[in-house]
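Lecture notes, unit on protein representations.

Consider one protein chain, 112 amino acids long.
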Amino acid sequence: MTIFEKMLNKEIPANILFEDENVLAIHDIDPQAPEHILLIPKETAAGLNDIENWSDEQAGRYLKTVVKTAKLLGVDKSGYRLVINSGRHGGQTVPYLHMHILAGRRMNWPPG
């Protein structure tokens, strides 16, 4: 069981921004920007490639959570970066799909 599954099951604490029937949005414990939120879907997926098993509606709801989160943070107008690390070479360290929302400062390019 991953750390995210434990958070979803309320087995370990998390600094929750919001939670609904589809997503748990938490503050990252090692923020890389003034605002750094993780969006953890309640629909199980080890990584991005696994969402091909989701319905289009499930995938769309997950992506729309980004906009909801940006509005809650007040960065929907100023901008933010969305990051999905996929696989070992993509920098994924927890084998459970999650998106990072980074905001609160100007992002540099290239990112990594």
